[in-house]
Design brief:
five-stranded parallel beta sheet; alpha/beta; 57% helix; 209 residues
Length: 209
């Protein structure tokens, strides 16, 4: 099954024994695991659109875990990253979090801590992707509004009555009511509160509204 639909944990560590033992552990909670020995190979080949998390060893030859983390952040990769190290220091921990790591664990890794961190990371990533999808859908619906409907929506978001919107736009109250009905229909919302919650930010971004 593709990691686009099934959460996948990407495990990057140059130590084969560590990869095998951690992959076996992670698999016990039903998570799919893909192991990588070479961080550069991982950086080139892994599915960026997939759901899941990344477990990354700090100390590896050729490319360190922190360097890989920096590369992932620079590329806009949104999977949460859990850093592992056998030589943890306060400075290293601080650098990892500053670079965007979601968690920092020392080897030998406590099984329960790692599994809890991974499950939290996957839930976080699933929620983040769902919000992104919702935001895209909302933006697509907003783009279907006519210019006049966007102006009416802006008045609704500001809390104006139909009469106030009509005066502002030099329209009849009946015309405003018609536009208002179209706004609710096109944006697929059932209440004014829901409409404001989902679309106020888009109205604020729109210079024409």
């Amino acid at each position: 099954m593709s990691s686009l639909s099934s959460p996948t944990i990407h495990l990057i560590d140059d130590d084969a024994a560590v990869r095998d033992s951690l992959a076996l552990l992670i698999g016990t909670v039903g998570l799919r695991v893909q192991t990588w020995a070479d961080p550069q190979d991982f950086l080139v080949r892994f599915e960026r659109q997939g759901i899941g998390a990344i477990v990354l060893d700090v100390r590896m030859p050729v490319m360190s875990g922190l360097a890989l983390l920096d590369a992932l952040v620079a590329q806009g990769v949104d999977q949460p990253v859990i850093m592992l190290t056998g030589h943890g220091t306060v400075d290293l921990c601080r650098r990892a979090f500053k670079s965007g790591a979601a968690e920092f664990l020392e080897k030998p890794v406590d099984d329960e801590l790692l599994l809890e961190a991974l499950q939290n990371a996957v839930r976080q990533h699933v929620g983040s992707r769902q919000r992104q999808q919702g935001d895209r859908a909302a933006r697509e619906r907003y783009e279907r509004l006519s210019g006049r409907e966007r102006e009416v929506l802006a008045g609704m978001v500001e809390g104006q009555t139909n009469k106030a919107i009509a005066r502002s736009l030099q329209l009849s109250p009946r015309t405003v009511e018609t536009h208002r009905a179209h706004v609710f229909e096109k944006l697929q919302t059932d209440s004014l509160a829901q409409l404001i919650h989902r679309y106020a930010s888009l109205v604020q971004e729109d210079p024409a509204a």
